[in-house]
Amino acid sequence: MRQYTRESTGLALLLFSELLHIHEIFEAEQLPLIPFKGPVLSWLAYRSLTGRTFIDLDFVTKQENIPRATSLLKGAGFRAQFGPQEELAGRSGHAPGQYAFFRESSRAQVELHTEQTLRYFPVPLDFDKMSRRFITVEIAGRKIRTFSVEDTLVHVVRSRN
Protein backbone atom coordinates (compact mmCIF):
# COMPACT_ATOMS: atom_id res chain seq x y z
CA MET A 1 0.00 0.00 0.00
CA ARG A 2 2.85 2.39 0.81
CA GLN A 3 4.53 1.66 -2.52
CA TYR A 4 1.28 2.31 -4.42
CA THR A 5 0.72 5.55 -2.50
CA ARG A 6 4.29 6.71 -3.21
CA GLU A 7 3.96 5.95 -6.92
CA SER A 8 0.50 7.47 -7.21
CA THR A 9 1.58 10.63 -5.37
CA GLY A 10 4.72 10.94 -7.47
CA LEU A 11 2.73 10.61 -10.70
CA ALA A 12 0.14 13.13 -9.52
CA LEU A 13 2.84 15.70 -8.72
CA LEU A 14 4.68 15.06 -11.98
CA LEU A 15 1.49 15.48 -14.01
CA PHE A 16 0.52 18.61 -12.10
CA SER A 17 3.94 20.04 -12.90
CA GLU A 18 3.39 19.20 -16.58
CA LEU A 19 -0.06 20.79 -16.45
CA LEU A 20 1.43 24.03 -15.13
CA HIS A 21 4.12 24.02 -17.81
CA ILE A 22 1.59 23.41 -20.61
CA HIS A 23 -0.78 25.99 -19.12
CA GLU A 24 1.98 28.65 -19.15
CA ILE A 25 2.84 27.95 -22.80
CA PHE A 26 -0.75 28.17 -23.98
CA GLU A 27 -1.56 31.23 -21.87
CA ALA A 28 1.50 33.03 -23.30
CA GLU A 29 0.24 32.22 -26.82
CA GLN A 30 -3.34 33.18 -25.88
CA LEU A 31 -4.59 29.82 -27.13
CA PRO A 32 -7.42 28.46 -24.97
CA LEU A 33 -6.61 25.03 -23.57
CA ILE A 34 -8.82 24.06 -20.66
CA PRO A 35 -7.70 21.32 -18.25
CA PHE A 36 -10.32 18.96 -16.87
CA LYS A 37 -10.32 15.66 -15.00
CA GLY A 38 -6.85 14.74 -13.66
CA PRO A 39 -5.33 17.09 -11.09
CA VAL A 40 -7.96 19.80 -11.58
CA LEU A 41 -10.83 17.42 -10.78
CA SER A 42 -8.87 16.02 -7.84
CA TRP A 43 -8.47 19.55 -6.49
CA LEU A 44 -12.12 20.49 -7.10
CA ALA A 45 -13.42 17.33 -5.44
CA TYR A 46 -10.93 16.84 -2.59
CA ARG A 47 -8.78 19.98 -2.32
CA SER A 48 -5.85 17.63 -2.86
CA LEU A 49 -3.81 16.68 -5.91
CA THR A 50 -3.67 13.11 -4.66
CA GLY A 51 -7.34 12.65 -3.74
CA ARG A 52 -8.03 10.65 -6.88
CA THR A 53 -5.89 8.55 -9.17
CA PHE A 54 -5.16 9.70 -12.73
CA ILE A 55 -2.57 8.66 -15.29
CA ASP A 56 -2.71 11.43 -17.89
CA LEU A 57 -3.71 15.04 -18.50
CA ASP A 58 -6.87 15.95 -20.39
CA PHE A 59 -7.50 19.31 -22.00
CA VAL A 60 -10.26 20.73 -24.18
CA THR A 61 -9.82 23.22 -27.00
CA LYS A 62 -11.62 24.05 -30.22
CA GLN A 63 -11.05 21.74 -33.18
CA GLU A 64 -9.69 24.66 -35.19
CA ASN A 65 -6.89 25.04 -32.61
CA ILE A 66 -5.49 21.52 -33.05
CA PRO A 67 -2.74 22.36 -35.60
CA ARG A 68 -1.43 25.23 -33.46
CA ALA A 69 -1.81 23.24 -30.21
CA THR A 70 0.08 20.35 -31.81
CA SER A 71 2.89 22.68 -32.78
CA LEU A 72 3.12 24.14 -29.25
CA LEU A 73 3.17 20.72 -27.60
CA LYS A 74 5.80 19.45 -30.03
CA GLY A 75 7.88 22.53 -29.20
CA ALA A 76 7.58 21.59 -25.51
CA GLY A 77 9.02 18.15 -26.20
CA PHE A 78 5.86 16.13 -26.69
CA ARG A 79 5.48 13.63 -29.53
CA ALA A 80 2.12 13.41 -31.28
CA GLN A 81 0.74 9.89 -31.28
CA PHE A 82 -1.24 10.55 -34.44
CA GLY A 83 -0.34 11.43 -37.99
CA PRO A 84 -0.71 14.66 -39.96
CA GLN A 85 -3.80 13.29 -41.70
CA GLU A 86 -5.54 12.92 -38.30
CA GLU A 87 -4.49 16.43 -37.32
CA LEU A 88 -6.33 17.76 -40.34
CA ALA A 89 -9.15 15.18 -40.21
CA GLY A 90 -11.25 17.35 -37.95
CA ARG A 91 -11.77 19.81 -40.77
CA SER A 92 -13.59 17.12 -42.74
CA GLY A 93 -15.70 16.18 -39.72
CA HIS A 94 -13.94 12.94 -38.72
CA ALA A 95 -11.53 13.52 -35.86
CA PRO A 96 -9.89 10.74 -33.82
CA GLY A 97 -11.19 9.90 -30.33
CA GLN A 98 -8.58 12.27 -28.89
CA TYR A 99 -5.30 13.86 -29.88
CA ALA A 100 -2.74 12.01 -27.75
CA PHE A 101 0.78 13.22 -26.97
CA PHE A 102 3.64 11.70 -25.02
CA ARG A 103 6.83 13.17 -23.59
CA GLU A 104 9.58 10.60 -23.22
CA SER A 105 11.63 12.54 -20.65
CA SER A 106 8.82 12.69 -18.09
CA ARG A 107 6.70 9.79 -19.40
CA ALA A 108 3.74 12.20 -19.36
CA GLN A 109 0.67 11.52 -21.48
CA VAL A 110 -1.54 14.37 -22.66
CA GLU A 111 -4.87 14.12 -24.46
CA LEU A 112 -6.49 17.02 -26.29
CA HIS A 113 -10.25 16.86 -26.78
CA THR A 114 -12.42 19.03 -29.01
CA GLU A 115 -16.07 19.45 -29.90
CA GLN A 116 -15.48 16.76 -32.54
CA THR A 117 -13.61 14.23 -30.38
CA LEU A 118 -16.17 14.52 -27.57
CA ARG A 119 -18.84 13.07 -29.82
CA TYR A 120 -20.33 10.81 -27.14
CA PHE A 121 -22.33 13.73 -25.78
CA PRO A 122 -26.01 13.73 -26.79
CA VAL A 123 -25.67 17.40 -27.76
CA PRO A 124 -22.53 18.72 -29.48
CA LEU A 125 -20.10 20.52 -27.20
CA ASP A 126 -20.50 24.29 -27.45
CA PHE A 127 -17.07 25.49 -26.34
CA ASP A 128 -18.00 29.18 -26.62
CA LYS A 129 -21.09 28.75 -24.45
CA MET A 130 -19.19 26.67 -21.89
CA SER A 131 -16.37 29.23 -21.79
CA ARG A 132 -18.79 31.79 -20.35
CA ARG A 133 -19.14 29.46 -17.34
CA PHE A 134 -15.43 28.84 -16.73
CA ILE A 135 -14.25 29.11 -13.15
CA THR A 136 -10.79 29.88 -11.87
CA VAL A 137 -9.22 27.39 -9.50
CA GLU A 138 -6.18 28.26 -7.43
CA ILE A 139 -3.83 25.34 -6.85
CA ALA A 140 -0.44 25.82 -5.20
CA GLY A 141 -0.71 29.56 -5.75
CA ARG A 142 -1.41 29.18 -9.49
CA LYS A 143 -4.68 30.25 -11.08
CA ILE A 144 -6.09 27.90 -13.70
CA ARG A 145 -9.30 28.27 -15.70
CA THR A 146 -11.45 25.20 -15.98
CA PHE A 147 -15.03 24.16 -16.57
CA SER A 148 -17.71 25.00 -14.03
CA VAL A 149 -18.44 22.28 -11.50
CA GLU A 150 -21.66 21.48 -13.36
CA ASP A 151 -19.92 21.18 -16.75
CA THR A 152 -17.13 19.12 -15.15
CA LEU A 153 -19.70 16.72 -13.74
CA VAL A 154 -21.25 16.22 -17.20
CA HIS A 155 -17.78 15.61 -18.73
CA VAL A 156 -16.76 13.08 -16.11
CA VAL A 157 -20.04 11.14 -16.15
CA ARG A 158 -20.23 11.02 -19.96
CA SER A 159 -16.56 10.03 -20.40
CA ARG A 160 -17.01 7.04 -18.08
CA ASN A 161 -19.88 5.57 -20.15
Notes on the protein architecture:
The chain has helices spanning 2-28, 38-46, 66-75, 84-89, 127-131, 149-160; strands at residues 34-36, 57-60, 79-80, 99-103, 108-113, 135-139, 142-146. 43% of the residues lie in helices and 19% in strands. By secondary structure, it is α+β, with helices and mostly antiparallel strands. A five-stranded mixed sheet has the order 1-2-5-4-3. Strands 6-7 form a two-stranded antiparallel ribbon. It is built from six helices and seven strands; from the N terminus they run H-E-H-E-H-E-H-E-E-H-E-E-H.
Oligomerization status of the protein chains: single chain
Topology as H/E string? Answer: HEHEHEHEEHEEH
Q: Count every helix, treating DSSP H or I runs of 4 or more residues as helices.
A: 6
Number of DSSP strand runs: 7
Main-sheet strand order equals 1-2-5-4-3
